[in-house]
Structure formats: structure tokens, C-alpha cells
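Q: Sequence in, structure out?
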Amino acid sequence: MKRGFSCALAIAPMLALAVPGSANAAVFLDFDGSDGVFGNDDVTADTFSDEFIFDTGVSAGLLSATISSIASSDPSSNIDFTSVTINGTEFDLVQAGRVEFRSIEDLLIPGGLQTLIVTGTSGGTGSYSGTLAFANATAVPEPAVWAFMIFGFGAIGGALRTTRRRQHKANVKVGYA
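A: Exactly. Output:
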């Protein structure tokens, strides 16, 4: 009896690995640090929530992303996104209905792990996919900063010129005959 029980304990993990995965097995994320794709090609639940975690590396940067779902004439393939967020920032709704599309552009995010959460409703056989594009942030001044910097250099040049003129006038001697 003990032998049969221990044998069953040894076989149980192997059987668990042989069982097909849950509905979340269709969730995928392929991100190489600069761009990638994500999605779920088997949304069978009436309501769903998929979470994707990806790493952008150590530096901060700008992230742009899109997500879309296109329903066929069969209503069961329809997906309606309730919410799509990256680190809590909501995607902009571009189009709703049979063709659902959302996007986010140039979102400044810190380096490290990022969390993308997609929630919505499905007719029972829906799917969606999205794209990610990440670029490391570079320190590029804004136009107002450039203007202020150029004005500052001009003011310094003007002050030096005025000082030199005053010194030159002080050294000039006028003599009368």
C-alpha cells in the first residue's frame, strides 16, 4: 500500500505537466528590449483580464504601444476592451465596435519591469494583439529651453560689449589746443 501511494506521488507531477494549460496559456508576450508583440489568441471567457510583465532594462525611455481586435461576422469573435493600461496609464481609445483599437504614444516610463494589463469582454472565441516600441530617453532640451539659452548667451555678449565700451571711453583723453 505504501509503495502504491509513493508511486502515485511520483507520477502526479508528470501528469500535471501533461495536462493542457488553462485559458491563459494563449497569452503571449515577445519583447526584446526595444520592440515586441503581445496578445491572446484564445479569449474564451465572457470577461477576461490578462497581465503582461516585461523588462525595458535599466534606463528610462519612451514607450509607444497599440492594441487591436477585429471581429468577424460571427458575434462570438467580438472583443470589447474595458481597460488597457501600462503601469496604470490608460491607452487612448481610437476606435470602438467591431474593430476595436487603442494606442498610447511616447509615454515616459522608468527603467525596469513594466506591467501591461488588458481587460475586456469576449463573445467566446475572440482574440487580440498589440505592439510595443521602446526607445531610451535622451536628454534633448525643449524649444523653450533652447530659446532661453540663446537669449542668455546674447545677454552675456551684450554685457561684455557694454563693459568694453565704457572702459575704452574712460581711457580716451581729449586735449584742447
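The radius of gyration is 31 Å.
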